[in-house]
Design goal:
With about 100 residues, this protein is of the alpha+beta class. The protein is built from two helices and six strands; from the N terminus they run βαβββββα. The protein is globular and about 35 Å long.
Length: about 100
């Protein structure tokens, strides 16, 4: 098993606004994943943690997003075969996360 991929995205939104933006962004994320031939099972919130499962190349990728007042921490558990794409995944999470948490 590959080691989890972790991306921390700082923000200045506060806890409630960051949570709201992530919740609103789930639909967009599902649509983007679907266009790429991937699928996202229902994402679920438990407190300030959003857990998700994505299907990719006949593999299941699970992870969670922890929301704090000044940052968002994304942790994704990539199966060994998909860990070859870890840099691309990390880059995509970082770029899209920054857009989501900085746009007005």
């Amino acid at each position: 098993m590959a080691k989890p991929l972790v991306v921390v995205i700082p923000h200045q939104l506060g806890l409630a606004e960051a949570h709201r933006r992530l919740d609103d962004g789930i639909g967009e994320a599902k649509a983007l994943l679907q266009k790429a031939g991937l699928s996202m099972a229902d994402a679920s919130w438990e407190g300030e943690r959003l857990s998700f499962v994505v299907g990719a190349l006949n593999q299941k990728v699970d992870g969670h997003i922890d929301v704090a007042a000044d940052s968002v921490r994304v942790e994704v558990n990539l199966p060994l075969i998909l860990s070859l794409f870890a840099n691309k995944v990390q880059q995509a999470i970082g770029q899209n996360g920054v857009k989501l948490l900085t746009k007005k």
